[in-house]
Protein: Peptidase S1 domain-containing protein
Organism: Polypedilum vanderplanki
Amino acid sequence: MNVKYQIILCIILITFCITSLSAERNKIGKGKFEAYNGYRYTEAKSLDDANGMKLFLNRNRERKPPAHDTPASACSCKCGERNDESRIVGGNTAMINSYPWMARLSYFNRFYCGGSLINDRYVLTAAHCVKGFMWFMIKVTFGEHDRCDDSIRPETRFVLRAISQKFSYSNFDNDMALLRLNDRVPITDHIRPICLPSNKAETYVGKSGVATGWGTVREDGKPSCVLREVDVPVISNQDCIAKTNYTAKMITDNMMCAGYPGVGQKDSCQGDSGGPLIVERSDKRYEIMGIVSWGNGCARPSFPGVYTRVTRYLDWIHENAKDGCFCNK
C-alpha cells in the first residue's frame, strides 16, 4: 500500500472513530430510520464493518475536487416551476422530475435526508440533518427520481459548509440549515430552484401543501426508491395544540403543523426530514413554506406532521445565501 492510500485510510479510520463517539455521546444510532422517544428523526449511518470501509474507499478514490468553480449564470431563471407536462405515507409516486428543486442527501453514500435547492449554490434542509455530522461527507444529488436506479448518473455536489440555526434535539426548535455546495448547480429543465416566500406574515392556514421525499412509506418501514408526494392541509398552531395531542410547549412560533387531525393516514415520515412542504401560488408556481422536521410517529390521527416555518427565517436565508444566484423572474 503506497503512502497516498495509507493517508486516506488513516483519515477514514479517524473519521469513523469520531462518528462512533458522536453517536455514543448523543445516544442516537446513526443511520436508523426509527422513532426516538416517540418522535421521527433521520440520522446517517457510519460505516460499521470492513466491507463497508473498502466499498467507501473504492468509491471515493477517484473523487477529485472541481478543477474550477462554475461561473455564475445570468440568474434569468424562473423558480418554483413544476414539470407537470412530464407528468410519503398515504401519498403517490411523483411524476419524473415533477419537483426539480428536490435534493437527496447522502452520508457515507447512504441516503438519509432531503433538501430543497433555493439558488444555484445553496440547499435548504433541516438542522437535525447536519447537527453533529461531518458536513464534508454529505453528498447532495439533484434531478433524481429513482434513487435506486444505478444506470442513471444524476448531478451531484458535496457540502463545502453547513450553516444552521440554534437547534437542539430537546425541542426541535429552529430546525433549519443551509448547505453551501462545493460548486454551482446548473439550472436546467430537470434542476430548478424553489421560490422563497415573499410575505413574512403569511401563515398558510387552510391552504393545501405538498410534501415530497424518499422517506418511508409507513411508520418503521423502508425508504422509498422513487420520489413520492403527499397533500396535507396547514393547521393553525392554535388548532394544532387544541385538536391534537401536541402541547403548547411542543409547538413554537417557528413551527407549523400540517395533516389531518383525528384522521391521520397521510403524512411525511422518517427519511423525509429536511425536504420541503410547498404551496402553489396564484401564478401557478410554487414556494416553500415548511421544512419536514418532526412528529410523533407517522400519519397518526392525533399527531400531524410538524414543519419548520420558513417565513420566520427569510432574512437569515437571504443573508447567508447571498453569494448564490437567485432566479430573478
Remarks:
- Residues 3-26 form the longest helix (24 residues).
- The first strand starts at residue 33 and ends at 36.
- Residues 16-39, 41-68 have pLDDT under 50 and may be disordered.
